Amino acid sequence: MIYAGPSSQFPIYDGEMVRAGGRASVVVTEGGRRLAMEHLFQRPTAPKEIHVWITSVTGADRDLAERIGQSIDAR
Length: 75
Fold this sequence. Notes:
Elements: E1 2-5, E2 16-20, E3 23-30, E4 33-42, E5 49-53, H1 59-71
Antiparallel strand pairs: 1-5, 2-3, 3-4, 4-5
């Protein structure tokens, strides 16, 4: 899921907050692996916030969703 607008509801997941690459990310450990569940980009111009998060998918779809989330770049 992606939200682009003035005020997101970040964070929606509990986990470790990591700041890198111009974004804040929430990282959790699942099955011995670290997964970035959501990302928040904050910008000086509209849209002020871009919030990306993984919804309730499992297995290979979850892995794909995380890779897609990691690939987002606010330009």
